Amino acid sequence: MNSALSFLIGARRCEIDELDQLARTSALVGTIGTLVHALQRERGISNVWLASGGRRFAAQREEQIAACLRAEEAVRSSFGRLDTEAPRIGNGARLFSRIAWVLPGLDALPELRRRVAAMALSAAEATAAFVKLIAGLLAVVFEAADGATDPEISRLLVAMFNFMQGKEFAGQERACGAAAFASGRNDGARQQQWLHLIESQERCFQVFVEFSGPALGELWRSSQPTAQLAEQERLRRIACAAPPGVSLDTELSQTWFDCCSRRIDAMQTIEERLAADLRLLCEQKTARARAELQAHEGLLAELAIEPGAASAAFFDEPPAPVAPPGQPRALAAPAPFGRQLERSVLEMVQEQSHRLQAMSDELETVRAALNERKLVERAKGLLMAYRRMSEEEAHKMLRRTAMSQGRRLVEVAESVLSMAEYLPADPVR
Amino acid sequence: MNSALSFLIGARRCEIDELDQLARTSALVGTIGTLVHALQRERGISNVWLASGGRRFAAQREEQIAACLRAEEAVRSSFGRLDTEAPRIGNGARLFSRIAWVLPGLDALPELRRRVAAMALSAAEATAAFVKLIAGLLAVVFEAADGATDPEISRLLVAMFNFMQGKEFAGQERACGAAAFASGRNDGARQQQWLHLIESQERCFQVFVEFSGPALGELWRSSQPTAQLAEQERLRRIACAAPPGVSLDTELSQTWFDCCSRRIDAMQTIEERLAADLRLLCEQKTARARAELQAHEGLLAELAIEPGAASAAFFDEPPAPVAPPGQPRALAAPAPFGRQLERSVLEMVQEQSHRLQAMSDELETVRAALNERKLVERAKGLLMAYRRMSEEEAHKMLRRTAMSQGRRLVEVAESVLSMAEYLPADPVR
After folding, report:
1. Are A257 and A405 within one domain?
2. The domain that contains B379 carries what CATH number?
3. Residues B117 and B227 placed together within one structural domain of the fold
4. How far apart (Å, rounded) are the C-alpha atoms in residues B60 and B49?
5. What's the mean pLDDT in A358-385?
6. Using a CB-CB distance cutoff of 8 angstroms, which residues of chain A are in contact with residue B8?
7. Whole-number mean pLDDT of chain A?
8. How far apart are CA A93 and CA B398, in angstroms?
9. Mean model confidence pLDDT for chain B
10. Could you give the number of structural domains in chain A?
């Protein structure tokens, strides 16, 4: 029985280890949220600076760069707190390689800013650079969500990832609309992209509401005053329903930008609340797991005093049925010696298996919400391998197909994957 | 660039850590295979001993118990080599809790043997005890397969689990047939169970062939001489096609037992080969990962000498498309300084992400083969929670339904799960 209990304790230690690691990645996700928000603002400000030939937003740009540097510092030190020397992390390899991917992007920021300052690139080029960096940061959040082993924490991380991704689509929509109004007209391709950004962000916020729980969902709804939503929809309609070629009121550019910015800034509040909830949940779970570990260790100490002759209790009919999944029973009642103690260990073992089983079932359900993105990534990989495309080209091709066929991106990705067997056996080299 | 490379190296370390852990669990799986084989023989011998009122197999039983004790010792020391103090294992919690479940079973073996020696239980009771213990050992192998993070190793572990499970069904079929022939008649219920055992083992061996690769598949086919298969099928037909009540030739009991035993002993050879392949694969993979880690570390040392000014290479169009998934490119060519070096780090990072993505896609495909068992477990859990059943009762109920409706166990499990929403909101307490 002693050795069984040691493994039971080992299992608990694994859970605690994972919770500790989750607390660190959750903190990291929080700092990434702040950095992404700062970079989204810098992207918007840089656009105006470039589009105005350097006449507008010079001071705001300096201020925003300073804010970005502070947020970047926090992200870098969260990265530093992940232990790459002695990693004990579920999908550590994937998380670390996403971080390795994004770090050169952070390193290259000063050079990007130098070029923006020198007007050495267009607003579109600057936007593309920020989009790429933010996508890299979101990929880190995605892996953190996908690697979580606790279903409740995973649930909040999935909500967080989707919220951040939705916010990024909202930021891209702001840039897209600002460019359209500023240029005084909209064309068909931009309208299509705009609609795609609206649809993608709505999908993300749906998933967020589904996974974040009622309190945050309510906060999200109340953070978007109806008047503001109506104003945004009116501006969307003016630009997107206008027949190509019809000119747009360039004055609306600022109105649009301000309207979007109010909405996006409100999102930042929700995101901070989510990050705080996540921290709290990690703390609570760790505390509970530690308390249970102590109880197990206490029992082990008792068993060491009274080793209890091995009996065939294992082979007898099992005791009363265990608690339903997800509802662990209280630890075995006292009266803890001899055969009774042995029984209580057997019951604990059985309860633990059922609890872990229930957790892993639930985890699977939660992770399914991440599958859409995985399908899209997989389809991109296929196109890259077989059509010699870069990642950007593959993504554009998928999006173009989705737009022209009026289907969702994930549906196109599924079609591409289902056609994989018709591709030549050997990819183009 | 330095920090990106450190995370790239951290990602590699994670992989190596996981491979080391996989090597340990693979070794454990090998020792479990030997113990299960020994216990299967002890189960058969104990049955004959009990059925013959202690007249037959007394010496064989002593010998077999000695063999079991040796195999048990090996399993226990493999358990001991898993580090429960500082676990670094993917699904460690689940693996450890399965081990915690099975250890009391091993502890209870001496008592079980004492009762067998004293004829204090029936052959059916002894069989049930051994079946329960073996099922616990197979559950450990299942978790080892489900927790593997390397798709090739996972593939072999899935093959191994299915082979071991198939072999166990074959062992149960031997016992079932031996009891039928020995009693001189077969009844409908036993015929049904017998057919279920045939179908289940065939399904397991199919999955084994699918995942073990052509060489082992060939070995498996050639290990089963046609004449022997024909003899087994003939005996199956005699017993299972006989109308209930018709008497069977009791002399066939020994013929049946020997025929099955030859087949099961041949299985042991395949299993040992699988275990050896698994060990070899783990060694090769670890060696390769370590060599790549060294190459990365060499590059990091070079970068430390020549830090290379941060440029905006990250934001430029990506270099030539990466290798197709699953085919990592060679490390970047030499000419390793300054911007060129930076590019090669970016390429390495990108290749690593794509490689990890491809690995995780493949892993998902391999693990899908384990889903059937998971569905059955989940359906059992549901029945236990809502119908106040023990695990055994739940399993019997599912199997009975499958038999009476002529459906596969997994199909019944799926139906049960799909009806979950019709169950009352609160399970019976």
Report:
1. no
2. 1.10.10.10
3. yes
4. 9
5. 82
6. 96-97, 100
7. 83
8. 40
9. 83
10. 2
- Dihedral in degrees, nearest 10, Cα atoms B210, B211, B217, B221: -60
Cα A37 to chain centroid distance, Å, stands at 14
A143 and A47: one domain? yes
Nearest residue of B to residue A11 by CA position?
A: B93
Percent of chain B exceeding pLDDT 90 equals 39
Q: Which of B216, B250, B281 is the last residue of a domain?
A: B281
The answer to whether the CB of A394 falls within 8 A of the CB of A380 is: yes
Mean pLDDT throughout A84-107?
80
B117 has a pLDDT exceeding 90:
yes
Which of B254, B281, B308 finishes a domain? Answer: B281
Mutant choice from A315, A387, A393, A396 vs B, greatest count of B C-beta within 10 A: A315
A336-359 average pLDDT score: 72
Range of the domain at B139: 23-281
User: Is the model's pLDDT at A249 over the cut of 60?
Assistant: yes
Judge: B4–A353 Cβ closer than 8 Å, yes or no: no
Per-residue model confidence as pLDDT tens digits over A121-150: 998 899 999 999 999 999 999 988 888 888
ipTM above 0.90, yes or no: no
- Amino acid type, B222: S
The larger pLDDT score, comparing residue B190 to residue B281, is at B281
Subunit contact A93:B1, Cβ cutoff 8 A = no
Interfacial A residues in 181-210 facing B (CB < 8 Å): none
How many CB pairs lie under 8 A apart between chains A and B? 263
B55 plus B198 within the same structural domain: yes
A116: in domain: yes
Residues A194 and A73 reside in one and the same domain: yes
Residue by residue, DSSP assigns B184-250 as TB--HHHHHHHHHHHHHHHHHHHHHHHHH-HHHHHHHHHTS-HHHHHHHHHHHHHHHSSPTT-B--T
Whether A240 maps to a domain, the answer reads yes
